[in-house]
Automatic annotation (TrEMBL):
Primary site of residence: membrane
Pathway: Glycan metabolism
Organism placement in taxonomy: Eukaryota, Viridiplantae, Streptophyta, Embryophyta, Tracheophyta
GO biological process terms, semicolon-separated: fucose metabolic process
Transcription regulation in keyword set: no
Protein name, as recorded: O-fucosyltransferase family protein
Transmembrane segments: 12-32
Length: 510
C-alpha cells in the first residue's frame, strides 16, 4: 500500500500525521503504545488487545501430533524437477561499445528497490548501455538513507554481471554533475519522467535510446515497476533473475550478523534440569531447525485493511482517523463490513491468528520461531498470545547484543536485509501478509526449492469468523487447506511478476 498513495502528497501527509501525533494521544491512547500502556487507567475505553479465539487457543495448547506428522512438517521439500537456470541462452555478450550511461532512482522499501535494481540491469542490457549503481531514495515512511553500497556488496554485483552488462559505481568526471541533486533542482533534458508502468523493451529503444545518443546519459525516474514482465527476450528474463538471486548479496557485516543470529537460532535452547530429560531429548531432535515468521502488522497495514482487530471502539476510531489522515478516506476496504472483508480473505492475520495457524500446522512449544518484524501495532500486548504458543520465539533483539546490532539499529533497510538473510537460511518460512517481502522470499526460496508456507487467507478468514468451531475441526481443515501451499512450484502466468514466480523463465526442468 506504500505504492498506492501519491508520492508528491506524502511529505504533506506525513507532516499532517505529525500534527496528529500531538493531538491524538489525548483521546486515542493506544495508537501510541508507551503512553497508553503506562497509564491505562486514564483511558477507560482502551483495552489491551485480548485473545479473540480463546477456545481455539486452548485446543492449540493441548494438542498432540503424531511422530509422522512432526517429521513431515520439518522435512525439506522433495525434488520437484526444476532447477535454477539463469545462464544466458546465447552466451554472455557485452556490447562492443556502450551507448551511454543509465541512471535510475528507486523508491520504496528494500524489497521494492531490489526489483528496481533487477529491472535497471535489464534495461541497461536492452539499450547496450552502462548502468550506474542505482540511487536508493529515502522512503518517507521507513526513513532510511542507506545507499546501495551500504546494503549490497558492490564489487560482487559488478563482478557477477561483468560479462553481460557493464556497471560503474561512479560516473566518469565529465558526467560527474549528473547527481541526484542536479535532477532534484530543475527540469533536465536527460531525465525521462514518462516511462509507463510495465513498459516494453521497444518503449526503451524508442524513448531512451535517442536521449542516450544525444547526451551520452539518461536518467529514468520514476522507475519502479517500469519494465514489463511479458514479451521480453528469454535472455533478459534470465538476466533479471541472475541479478536477483546471484548478483545481489548483502555487505559482509550484514551477512556476519545474519550468520550469528542463525547460529544462535540453531543452537538447542538453554540448559535444562535432569528431571526434564525427556523434554530435553525432544528438543535435541529439534535442534538446528527453525521457522521464520514474517509478521507485517503495523498501524499502516491495520488501518488500510479497514478490518476489526478486536481492540474495541477506541481502536476502531484510531484506525479510522489514521485512514482519514493518510489516505483522505479513499480506502476501498472501508466500504465493506469486517465480516465481508474476512470472508474474502482481505484482513491481515493478527499475531494471535497466525499463531493458531502455525499450531494447526504442527508447530509446538519446542519449535524455534524467528520473528521477522518491523513494528507490531499494539506492541507486546498484541504478540503475547503468539508467545504463549511459542515460548521459544526470538528476534534480532533477543538473539544479539546492542553492540552487535549497533550498525543496523534504526536503519529500516539494513534491518530488513538481516531479516531477509535469516529468512533465506531457515528450514521453513511463512509470511502473515502478502507484500513485497513475502513475494521476494517466496520467489527466492522457490528458486532454491525451500519450504515456504503461504497462508490461505480466504480459508482462514472464514474459519475465524465461526466462533463455535472446535479446535480439532479447525486444525483438520487448516492442515488440509495448506497441504499444497508449502513451496510447490507455481508457474508464472501472463502479467505476473517474475520476482514472485521465477519459473519457468529462470528455472529449467531437470
Ligand atoms: C509444551 O506443551 C506440552 C503439552 O503439549 C506441555 O506438557 C509442556 O509442559 C509444554 N512445555 C513448555 C516449556 O511449555
Ligand atoms: C513438538 O514437536 C517436535 C517436532 O517438531 C516433537 O518432537 C515433540 O514431541 C513435540 N512436542 C510436543 C510437546 O508435542
Ligand atoms: C546491442 O548489441 C547487440 C549485439 O551485441 C545488437 O544486436 C543490438 O542491436 C544492440 N542494441 C542496441 C540498442 O544497440
Ligand atoms: C461453524 O462451525 C460449526 C462446527 O463445525 C458448524 O456446525 C457451523 O455450521 C459453522 N457455522 C458457520 C456459520 O459456518
Amino acid at each position: 500500500m506504500k505504492q498506492i498513495y501519491n508520492y508528491q502528497n506524502q511529505s504533506r501527509i506525513m507532516a499532517l500525521a505529525g500534527l496528529f501525533v500531538i493531538i491524538l494521544p489525548i483521546f486515542i491512547p493506544n495508537l501510541f503504545g508507551p503512553l497508553g500502556r503506562a497509564f491505562p487507567s486514564l483511558f477507560s475505553e482502551w483495552n489491551a488487545p485480548k485473545p479473540r479465539h480463546l477456545s481455539l487457543l486452548n485446543g492449540a495448547l493441548h494438542q498432540h501430533f503424531s511422530i509422522k506428522q512432526q517429521y513431515e512438517l520439518w522435512s525439506p521439500l522433495s525434488n520437484q524437477g526444476w532447477e535454477p537456470c539463469t545462464q544466458s541462452i546465447n552466451g554472455p555478450s557485452l556490447p562492443e561499445k556502450s551507448r551511454g550511461f543509465i541512471q535510475v532512482f528507486l523508491d520504496g522499501g528494500l524489497n521494492q528497490q531490489r526489483m528496481g535494481i533487477c529491472d535497471a540491469v535489464a534495461v541497461a542490457k536492452i539499450l547496450n548501455a552502462t548502468l550506474v549503481i542505482p540511487h536508493l531514495e529515502v522512503n518517507p515512511v521507513w526513513q532510511d538513507s542507506s545507499s546501495f553500497t551500504d546494503i549490497f556488496d558492490v564489487d560482487h554485483f559488478i563482478n557477477v554481471l561483468r560479462y553481460e552488462v557493464s556497471i560503474v559505481a561512479k560516473l566518469p568526471s565529465e558526467y560527474s554533475w549528473y547527481t541526484r541533486e542536479y535532477y532534484g533542482t530543475g527540469i533536465r533534458a536527460t531525465r525521462i519522467k514518462t516511462a509507463p508502468v510495465h513498459a516494453s523493451s521497444n518503449w526503451y529503444l524508442e524513448n531512451v535510446l535517442p536521449v542516450l545518443q544525444s547526451h551520452g546519459i539518461a536518467a529514468i525516474a520514476p522507475f519502479s515497476h517500469r519494465l514489463a514482465f511479458d514479451n521480453l527476450p528469454d535472455d533478459i528474463q534470465r538476466l533479471r533473475c541472475k541479478v536477483n538471486f546471484q548478483a545481489l548479496v548483502f555487505v559482509p557485516h550484514i551477512q556476519a550478523l545474519g550468520n550469528t543470529l542463525v547460529q544462535r537460532l540453531r543452537r538447542p535452547p538453554g540448559k535444562l534440569q535432569s528431571s526434564q530429560t525427556n523434554y530435553l531429548r525432544e528438543k535435541i531432535e529439534d535442534a538446528g531447525k527453525y521457522v521464520v515468521l514474517h509478521l507485517r502488522f503495523d498501524k499502516d497495514m491495520a488501518a488500510h485493511s479497514a478490518c476489526d482487530f478486536g481492540g474495541g471502539k477506541a481502536e476502531r476510531l484510531a484506525l479510522a482517523k489514521y485512514r482519514q489522515v493518510l489516505w483522505q478516506g479513499r480506502v476501498l476496504n472501508a466500504q465493506f463490513t469486517d465480516e465481508m472483508l474476512r470472508t474474502q480473505g482481505r484482513c491481515p492475520l493478527t499475531p494471535e491468528e497466525i499463531g493458531l495457524l502455525l499450531a494447526a500446522l504442527g508447530f509446538n512449544n519446542s519449535s524455534r520461531l524467528y520473528l521477522a518484524s518491523h513494528k507490531v501495532y499494539g506492541g507486546e500486548a498484541r504478540i503475547s498470545t503468539l508467545r504463549t504458543l511459542f515460548p521459544l520465539m526470538e528476534d534480532k533483539k533477543s538473539l544479539a547484543s546492542q553492540e552487535e546490532l549497533a550498525r543496523v539499529e534504526g536503519k529500516a533497510s539494513l534491518l530488513a536485509a538481516v531479516d531477509y538473510y535469516v529468512s533465506m537460511q531457515s528450514n521453513i518460512f511463512i509470511s502473515a501478509s502478502p507484500g513485497n517481502m513475502h513475494n521476494a522470499l517466496v520467489a527466492h526460496r522457490s528458486y532454491l526449492n525451500l519450504k515456504t508456507i503461504r497462508p490461505n487467507m480466504v480459508l482462514l478468514g472464514q474459519l475465524f469468523l465461526n466462533k463455535s468451531m472446535e479446535w480439532s475441526e479447525f486444525q483438520n481443515v487448516v492442515f488440509k487447506g495448506h497441504k499444497n501451499r508449502q513451496g510447490q512450484v507455481r508457474l508464472r502466468k501472463a502479467k505476473q511478476s517474475i520476482y514472485t514466480y521465477p519459473a519457468p523463465d529462470c528455472m529449467c526442468e531437470a
